[in-house]
Amino acid sequence: MQAQILPVPILLVAGFLGAGKTTVVNHLLAHAEGRRIAAVVNDFGAINIDAELIAGSSDGVVSLSNGCICCTLEGDLIRTLATLLRRDPRPEFIVIETSGIADPSDIVRNLMDPVIWKEAPLETVLCVVDATQPPAALNDALLRSQLRAADVVALSKVDLADAGARAAMREAIRTQRPAAVVVDANHGEVPAALLFPIDPDRMPEPRDVTPRRPATDRFETLSWTSDRRIVLPRLQQAIGKLAPKLARAKGLFETVEQPGRLTVFQLAGGRATLAAGGAPTPGVPRTRIVFIAEMGALSRAEIDAVMQGCVEAG
């Protein structure tokens, strides 16, 4: 008798640029507790920095870059899911991390495809929200769409927000999405019981989908690479010049001050952070940075002019 093939539930992780989605997915994969989890990571740009920052898992990470899976890469997403479902052994769960500019309702619409739904039903939509942002930030049309799709809302960076700010953000979230469960995601931790089904035989209910809205290009990415190492004080000055025009920036680079080791750079919500990374990969540029800005706010020539002054002399 042939064994029953169980469906593979999907967890969709959404959230605005720099909200902390990768940190949540990293924590989930690092604490898989024996679950076979496949991760699909969509970074808006030609260089998928987020995929490199995702922790290893038993079923690996699939990268979808240079486009957004809510529109230009939707066919790639369906093909990727079909490929994952043909793996032997099959993953037990699939996590999809969207880009920060993705509207989850468009992705949900694609996941309602009857062929995909039968084998990989959408179980949970998790929206990550930066707790340090003012509640008025949720008035942004894209953030509202991300919240409206959410079953669970995870407040990130709660250690950087005081109790009053957290309470105000929670109230603003409840106003826009009363049905969602709101939790603090300290260092990316979200209870797995809120994300994955307890009963593997239970199929979730199909979701209502809203009519597709016309796509509008709001953000653009400008990638910058170099085979030379970065001089850290110069980079800090350069980011200070570019930051007022940036919605988000992230990258990996080797510095003159610490040769032989990568540094992870993140800029979100006006805050820049640096963290230790792994060893450089042979054949890959030493410096890879992605800048995300409103359309027309920043030119490639401006980035090139500023960044060229950050590298070591040839």
List the helices and strands and how they pair.
Layout lengths: L9 E6 L5 H10 L6 E7 L5 H5 L7 E5 L8 H12 L7 E5 L6 H8 L2 H6 L2 E9 L10 H8 L3 E5 L6 H14 L4 E4 L34 E8 L5 H11 L5 E7 L7 E7 L2 E6 L10 E8 L5 H8 L7
Please give a structural write-up.
GO terms for molecular function: hydrolase activity; nucleotide binding. Belongs to the SIMIBI class G3E GTPase family. ZNG1 subfamily. This is GTP-binding protein YjiA. Keywords: Chaperone, Hydrolase, Nucleotide-binding. The chain has 314 residues and is α/β, with parallel strands linked by helices. It has helices spanning 21-30, 49-53, 74-85, 104-111, 114-119, 141-148, 163-176, 232-242, 300-307, and strands spanning 10-15, 37-43, 61-65, 93-97, 122-130, 152-156, 181-184, 219-226, 248-254, 262-268, 271-276, 287-294. The chain has two domains: 10-194, Rossmann fold; 219-310, CobW-like, C-terminal domain (Hypothetical Protein Yjia, Chain: A,domain 2, 2-Layer Sandwich). The protein contains nine helices and twelve strands. Helix 2 links the parallel strand 2 and strand 3. The longest helix is centred in the middle third of the chain and has 14 residues, at 163-176. The chain is globular and about 60 Å long. It starts with 9 loop residues before the first strand and ends in a 7-residue tail after the last helix. The model has no long low-confidence stretch (mean pLDDT 85).
Q: Main traits of this protein?
A:
314 residues, alpha/beta, Rossmann fold, Hypothetical Protein Yjia, Chain: A,domain 2, 2 domains, seven-stranded parallel sheet, five-stranded antiparallel sheet, globular
